[in-house]
Amino acid sequence: MSSLTAFSIPRSVAFSMEQMEKIKECLDELAGNTGAWSILLTDTTGQLIDVHGGIDKKIADALAVLIAGSYAASAEFIKILDKGKDAHLSNLSLETTDYSIFSIIVDEVLILNVAFENEVKVGIVRVFATEARHSLLEIVREALLTNSDAKDVNLRFTDSDLNQFLNDELEKLTEFEM
Amino acid sequence: MDSKQELWEKALHKMNKEGNFKAAVLSLEDGLPLVSSPAHYEDETAAAMVTLLNETVKRINHQLRLPRVDEISIVGDDRTRLICRYFTVDSHELLLTVLAPPDQSYRRLTNQAMKEIERIWLTQRTDR
User: Which CATH number applies to B4-121?
Assistant: First the structure.
């Protein structure tokens, strides 16, 4: 018997200028409250939404893609651990010798990444990142209603038939009418 | 402008200085430290230990149907006192833990510090 694997396609959302201003204010406030070294707001499709602090824009763009990949991997891991229940990843925490990164997920659309020196307590970052999530959540919901036609998309693959499915689709694409 | 952590550290430092307290830790109810003074005090251990104490208090509170706990105080045989003050700011349950020397009064100073912590918490940044 084949098992089904469901993959959620990340939703992309477009923000208006006014919404981007609100996002900037939110990140400014978070940076001020926490003393964070840098804050990256990315989305789950790998796009950079905004960056605050000491990271070059080009590097931030590249990081956004990697962050989305890391989020996707962690989210799938959580699904496996949760044995198919409707589990959602809410935050990720990474620690190094001198810096830490705390990432918080906003409605499975945005990833708010806060990088901070280890003198800053993780409790402070968690409290104020959670407050920022509430503000961002409002902006995201408004943007999803007004600026986006994005809908939840789910792809379902049958594990044992995946190769066959891909081969068939490729053949269809390259078929010539004789 | 100082971050919230820096402002809270200053508030705790001031309280410690005035009360000759050995250390103070501000933490979330679930044991995550927000600030400590001195800055390199073993705040993670202290906050985690106080959370264990907090769990016991909650159970006692529930079983005996007591009103909300305001303070827990543990006194050593040398009269050194560990005080845990409970308070809520902006719907966050917070704990202020203070290590006071023998026979040192602490209520007024901890009340002042709690008010200052709340004020800092609720202050919006104005330098945007």
Answer: 3.30.450.30
